[in-house]
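Chain X:
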Amino acid sequence: MEIGMHCPRCGSLSKTKSGIVTGSQRYKCKDSGCHYTKSLKRGYPDSIKLKIINLYFEGCGFVA
């Protein structure tokens, strides 16, 4: 069992493996019955977003 992965519906850590979908392990929550896969966080960190907003308000351009 992987430590720290919570059910997206109820937040429970109680889960069981439930197959593989497109190369990713799928899990089933023992409490709510919800099926889910581990997903990675998307987007930029908050520190980068804050820098972009500050540059915007200062009228500066930026290159990604």
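Chain Y:
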Amino acid sequence: MSEPKEIKNRIHPCLRPESTRELEVERLLGLGATFVGDHRKPDGSGWAILADPEGNEFCVLRSASDRRAMEESPG
């Protein structure tokens, strides 16, 4: 188990995947990332915060296809 984080990241990358955000989150979790925070909203907007095995945090944003699907959905 890693030690608790003591200082903020010097950088905080935000990823915009080619696949959907949900598929990318699952793929990254399978590669060893951990889930840190969920800022996804029921309407499909928002982001997920993950951390690499060393504790460096990053966000996974909606993909272009996620954004198009939201724009095309009736509402």
